[in-house]
Design goal:
The chain is mainly β. The chain has no helices and 11 strands.
Length: 115
């Protein structure tokens, strides 16, 4: 299983970014996908989950209405569209898949929200 995130960067408050996570090594369309984030000095926290068919999404209250998780099963990719970004969204963002009894993580992509 391999997960590779991309799309992070430096953005001003109120701006937008779209993160991508390319998956390989497992049957992507059979598994829910999850985004987490970890801010400096804090524990990793859950951000959003999407079901395997993309029919249902759930979000942490801190990002609800601003972030959108989606997936393209033909491309084995999950996305996180982030709008109205705030400085407190600054973190390393990770995608995660729970496959055959264990969690797999990507290497993360840094998102920095600052003026």
């Amino acid at each position: 299983v391999q997960l590779v995130e991309s799309g992070g960067g430096l953005v001003q408050p109120g701006g937008s970014l779209r993160l991508s996570c390319a998956a390989s090594g497992f049957t992507f369309s059979s598994y829910a996908m999850i985004w987490y984030r970890q801010a400096p000095g804090k524990a990793r926290e859950w951000v959003a989950t999407i079901t395997r068919d993309g029919g249902s999404m759930n979000y942490d209250d801190s990002v609800k209405g601003r972030f959108t998780i989606s997936r393209d099963n033909a491309r084995n990719t999950v996305y996180l569209q982030m709008n109205s970004l705030k400085p407190e969204d600054t973190a390393v963002y990770y995608c995660c898949a729970f496959v055959l009894g264990r969690n797999y993580w990507g290497q993360g992509t840094q998102v920095t929200v600052s003026s």
